[in-house]
Amino acid sequence: MLKTYNPNDCIANIKFKTIQEAAFNKSTPTLAQVKNQAGNNFISGMLKAWILYLNDILNLKRPMTDSQITLATSLILQDYYSLRFADLEVLFRNIITGKYGSFFESLQIDKLMKLFENYWEERCELSASSNNSKHIEFNQNLDELGTDRKSKRRS
């Protein structure tokens, strides 16, 4: 699992480019699933590796300290445990490529948590929109089925 979800490999070999692709992908595990399978220390270590990678690749003047990374990891696991590794791939790629702005000086816990929050909100809106569309389509199919049955009874 460590090799499969190594941040360097995931970012270099992008499989998921959009939030839509990540949100509807069920092949990668959630943070909670990895925690349940391998334990809290394992998932914490994996997430720390992702943040360390981000910290390093952004070439910041004031990178996050070890204690800040540990705290950020804990907060992410508490609040965003249902994110999948596909989500991390998209989110971190977007951060690295500047989609959320530039980080000239530093990356701090509050900035990182805001990025996760914005990503989560966008992902939830996408999922809600998709569910709403499926609900409308389902109801239309039921209406059409009801109309077909009524037509057949009259014949």
Please give a structural write-up:
With 155 residues, the protein is mainly α. It is 70% helix and 0% strand. It contains seven helices and no strands. The protein has helices at residues 7-12, 19-23, 31-38, 40-57, 66-79, 85-96, 109-154. 25% of the residues are buried.
Biggest sheet character: none
**End-to-end C-alpha gap:** 61 Å
Percent helix: over 70%
Content of β-strand: under 5%
Radius of gyration: 20 Å
What structural class do the secondary elements suggest?
Answer: mainly alpha
**Low-pLDDT regions:** none
Count of helix runs: 7
Question: What value does the average pLDDT take?
Answer: 85
The total beta strand count reads 0
Name the helix and strand elements from N-terminus to C-terminus, one letter apiece: HHHHHHH
Q: Which descriptor suits the 3D outline?
A: elongated
Q: Which terms would index this structure?
A:
7 helices; 155 residues
Short summary:
This protein is mostly helical and 155 residues long. It has 7 helices and no strands.
Question: What is the topological layout?
Answer:
Elements: H1 7-12, H2 19-23, H3 31-38, H4 40-57, H5 66-79, H6 85-96, H7 109-154
Helix pairs in contact: 3-4, 4-5, 5-7
